[in-house]
Amino acid sequence: MPAQPHTAPKRVAVILSTFNQPLHLQRALAGYLRQLRPPDELLIADDGSGEETRAVVAAIAAQSSFPVTHLRHDHDGWRKPVIVNRAIAAATADYVILSDGDCIPRPDFVAAHLRLARPRTFLAGGDFRLPPEVTAAVSVADVLAGAVFQPSRLRELGLPPRRAKAIKLRAGPRLGALLDALNLSPARMGGSNASTWRDGLLAVNGLDERFRFPCKEDVEMGQRLRHLGFRGRHIRHQTLCLHLHHERGYWDYARTADNLRMLRETVSSRRTYAPEGLSRTSGPFTVIRYASAPS
Predict the structure, then answer these.
(1) Distance of alpha carbon 129 from its chain centroid, rounded?
(2) pLDDT of residue 206
(3) pLDDT tens digits for range 38-74
(4) CA separation for the pair 292, 159 (Å, rounded)
(5) What are 204-241's pLDDT values in tens digits?
């Protein structure tokens, strides 16, 4: 069979999930204001945050050259899959980047995802986790200036010198591509840095809304994409986002076990379609749409 020609995405949407982390979200959103290739739309999937988050989104949207949509439902325990599915349904672009509101994208983040996009493929990126003291010191000005991705600036903010030498921070496009090509493990979709075609997400019915605890819900969706005929591709060293520190809270072993069981069922059954996904009506939610700011 001849190779399928590469057709670049026409438009790209970024979907960020968030819950009550307005200061983290402010810095993450600032990263999208200085993208070399801005997204065509940005959607905030809000799992029930307070008024401060709405104010952060409105302030950033007023500066944005692209439209911003804030989707929110009331908080009723962890329901990230539900509101992310609403965002996928609301997106109009043919390609979707999935990330979190506590992850600051490098200026080439969107451009790299688009450059690496291939038919029937999902891209599996990674992140660089910042310790608490560095997270507290990072400013919006650092993000807008791009300084936060300079190892020297991170050292000034408190990152230990040894960590500042991490290859993720220093790898350029060529070395990053080589390192990713040498990674022979199966690529797994993660919530902080991943992308794929919107029609693929619709075909697998998005995230499985039966997942009510943050563990493997994104990996499980990637597995269904595989069963549909998509392949995963590592881009851990070719894209970069800085993951701001936050407390993890308690670990629910029973719900973790439930999630792992559902993941095993997906693998063994080779199902492609989420039993409870974005085609499901999942209760009320609000949508605030902000047009792009005048140039």
Answers:
(1) 14
(2) 98
(3) 999 999 999 999 999 999 999 999 999 999 999 999 9
(4) 36
(5) 999 999 999 889 999 999 999 999 999 999 999 999 99
The answer for residues whose C-beta is within 8 angstroms of residue 82's C-beta and 6 or more apart is 73, 209, 282, 283
User: DSSP state, 149?
Assistant: G
For 38-48, what is each residue's pLDDT tens digit? 999 999 999 99
Structure tokens at 116: 């690496």
Contact 163, 232 (CB under 8 A): no
Other Cβ atoms closer than 10 A to 227: 15
Q: Can you read off the two tokens belonging to residue 247? A: 């407390």
Work out whether the CA dihedral 280, 98, 21, 208 comes out positive or negative.
Answer: positive
CB of 152 within 8 A of CB of 267? no
Dist. CA 201–CA 35, nearest whole Å: 24
Which ranges constitute the DSSP H helices of 91-164?
Answer: 109-116, 132-137, 140-145, 151-156, 161-164
Q: Hey, which bits of 176-290 come out as E strands?
A: 193-197, 231-234, 241-243, 286-290
How many other C-beta atoms lie within 10 A of the C-beta of residue 139? Answer: 13
Give CA separation, 196 vs 40, 128, 226, 230, 249, in Å.
15, 21, 12, 9, 30
